[in-house]
Amino acid sequence: MPKIHAATVADHRSRQRAALLDAARALLAEGDASKVTFAEVARRTGLARNSVYKYFPDRAHLLTEVVREAAPHWTERIRTALAAAGDSPEDRVAAHVTAQLEMVRDGEHRIARATADAQDAAALRAGAEAAHRALLDPLVGALAELGDDAPLMTARLLQGFVNAATTALESGADYAAVADRTVRLAVAALRGLAPLPRADR
């Protein structure tokens, strides 16, 4: 019986912690990290404010954990898009750019962006930057497989198109128009490099 009780308590704590992270994630997705307070997170989960301290010692730990848990989801979403793309470098780049812009459209980027702009920014920026680096990993791997001799540099430069597109979308630009132009620009930039070997060569 004690083991069953311990397991039940652990399961309850796991669900409560997940609920707190979901509440913080929802607040960040709304675009303002300053709204992520223990009082507001507790209110949204129906817990007492003091209960939040049982799971996270302070706000910085809560926010950092939101980003840490979100990053693998973002990376997997991009990997899935790349796996479904064609074998050519152009198809891979188009899939990578499109997947990221779809996440921007869905509000996912606001989590890292809002966290990076938070008052307690030093540790949080590190977490957000790590998440952004993780987003490049699938493209870096694809470019390396395709024969790029500086895949990280190429991926970072191509990411500049996505960053500019994100700014445009945040300013209210039309998603379809921005996404189409960004994909075409990124693909054109890739073609401007020394030719990468294609999969059928």
From TrEMBL:
InterPro entries: Homeodomain-like_sf, HTH-type_TetR-like_transc_reg, HTH_TetR
Domain of life where this protein originates: Bacteria
PROSITE patterns named among the record's database cross-references: HTH_TETR_2 (PS50977)
The keyword Transferase appears for this protein: no
Domain HTH tetR-type intervals: 14-74
Residue ranges of the annotated DNA-binding region, renumbered to this chain: 37-56
Keywords associated with the record: DNA-binding
PANTHER family: HTH-TYPE TRANSCRIPTIONAL REGULATOR PKSA, HTH-TYPE TRANSCRIPTIONAL REGULATOR RUTR
Record's protein name: TetR/AcrR family transcriptional regulator
